[in-house]
Amino acid sequence: MNELAITVIGRDRPGIVADVAEVLARLGANLTDSTMTRLRGHFAMTLICVGPAAADVEAALAPLAADGQLLATVRAVTPDGESARTGEPYVMAVHGADRMGIVAAMTRVLADAGGNVTDLSTRLAGSLYVVVAEVDLPPGTAEKVAARLASTAADLGVDVTLRPADPDVL
User: Fold this and answer.
1) Which residues have CB under 8 Å from 105's CB, separation 6+?
2) Does the CA dihedral 12-13-18-20 come out positive or negative?
3) What is the pLDDT of residues 70-85, one digit of tens each?
4) Residue from 83, 89, 82, 92 nearest 139 by CA
5) Contact 122, 130 (CB under 8 A)
6) Backbone phi, then psi, for 63, in 5-degree steps?
7) What contacts 2, CB < 8 A, 6 or more positions away?
8) I want to staple 120 with a disulfide (CB 3.0 to 4.6 A). Which of 31, 133, 134, 166 is the partner?
9) 13, 68 in Cβ contact below 8 A?
């Protein structure tokens, strides 16, 4: 079986998720991880599935993109397998007036501390900019990272919080 990374982007309309999922189900592809969102009227979905060859999936998705409203890409990826989490899970939230460089500066602090961003979303509502990121931090570094985040946030004129995340229970 092949592991594939698939992206679908374009102008939003009802039924895109159903259309993509039906194509993949007909091919015998099993969706293992996915995320989808609307970004200012645009649809964006990324998923990982296990199943047929990339070329077969690409050909099956082509009719969905034929009118030029969607772009679907398929790429074979190497399975990483399950790995033990090495960091401690935290949630960083940033909010304040919109300005260039907020995500770059705040995620640089995390990266410099050895942190890994595992999920990130941003939203602009009027002039208010909000960032929410799930991050894994090296054990014992949260206090130092929180101080660096606070200093960086002050320089940017935004507010930041860093709190422990409750691990997902499945």
Assistant:
1) 152, 155, 156
2) negative
3) 999 999 998 776 666 6
4) 89
5) yes
6) -60, -30
7) 50, 51, 52, 53, 54, 76
8) 133
9) no
Residues 21-55: pLDDT tens digits?
999 999 999 999 999 999 989 999 999 999 999 99
Read off the amino acid at residue 155. D
Q: What's the angle, vertex CA 37, arms to CA 113 and CA 146, rounded to 5?
A: 20
User: Please, which residues have CB within 8 angstroms of residue 65's CB and are 6 or more apart in sequence?
Assistant: 10, 71, 72
One-letter amino acid for residue 4 of the chain: L
Which pLDDT does position 133 carry in this prediction?
Answer: 96
Burial class (CB in 10 A: 0-12, 13-18, 19+), 62: exposed
51 pairs with which residues across the strands? Answer: 2
